[in-house]
Amino acid sequence: MDIPHLIEMLPTMWSAFLETLLMISISTAVAIVIGFPLGVVLFATDRGLFWENRLVQSVLGVFVNIIRSIPFIILLVALYPFTNLIVGTTTGPVAASVSLSVAAIPFFARIVESSMREIDKGMIEAAVATGATPWMIIKDVLFLEGRASMIQGLTLTVISLVAYSAMAGVIGGGGVGDLAIRYGHYRYDNTIMISTVVILIAFVQVLQLLGDSIAKTTDKRK
Q1: Could you give the domains of the chain?
Q2: What would the pLDDT profile of 28-70 be if each residue is shown by its tens digit?
Q3: Could you give the CA distance from residue 78 to residue 83 in angstroms, rounded to a whole number?
Q4: Residues 82-129: tens digit of each pLDDT
């Protein structure tokens, strides 16, 4: 590895990492704000629950499954017109965060739904029997009982977004993926290629450790 060249490229690598961080931060925030309520609705509209509505549950389920089944690289290109409408461009980290958000929302919504299905239904029934409103059930039962699992799911979502962000960089999204292609692949620079891989691996490890730690501290079963 060419150490002097690596030192010379450090500012560029840091800038690329910040772009990746920006993409992931925006898409994670959107996934939480939209994906969490969507996951709650997917769960609560199922049979025998307090918002039972099979039509809503089926329509939302099909929509979520369709988005999840589209390969991200195809979704990224297909959303070019929507991205251009929202942010006025199809290149750069902010533009890439639009497609990342669309991919992350249904992914996290299914995780939220699965986390809530792990909760003992007797607790939900008991809350309904005591006159708890849907909001109280969501806040005091579903969220509190499922938060550790949801945090682990959110960690998985963020790690998936790291991989997706690198893919977005290949077609102009910026970030570490763009750096690896432009400087590493096109210029046959093994130092940059290896360095970008190390950066992404280290970033994922930190995210996993942080997510596991937070999940453990919020798990009421321990």
Answers
A1: 3-218 (1.10.3720.10)
A2: 999 999 999 999 999 989 887 878 888 998 999 999 999 999 9
A3: 9
A4: 989 988 888 888 888 999 999 999 999 999 999 998 888 888 888 888
For the chain, how are helix, strand and coil distributed in percent, rounded to 5?
A: 85, 0, 15
Burial class (CB in 10 A: 0-12, 13-18, 19+), 61: middle
Under DSSP, is residue 212 helix (H, G, I), strand (E, B) or coil?
helix
Token pair recorded at residue 203: 């970033």
Given a contact cutoff of 8 angstroms between Cβ atoms, the answer to whether 177 and 165 are in contact is yes
Task: Specify the pLDDT at position 1.
Answer: 57
Two structure tokens written together for 118: 């792990």
Q: Is 35 helix (H, G, I), strand (E, B) or coil?
A: helix
The residue assigned the tokens 């290949």 is: 170
